[in-house]
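Prompt: For my understanding, could you write out one protein's sequence and backbone structure tokens?
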Amino acid sequence: MDLYTIFKIAFSIIGSISVSGAVVWFFVKLASNTLADNYKKQIEHGFEKKLESYKSQIEILKAT
């Protein structure tokens, strides 16, 4: 094998690893954003339920 072939193989390996890393990074970022949005919606829903509970308690106290 000559030097050109060795460089060609080395750059091919490095290139395929780089592309694979970029694809994995994209899917991890997509999954993490989706999970973060779902978690945020769950927390927001919990706060809304508490707020409604507090509002109903205030209405009961106003009535008494």
Helices lie at 3-63.
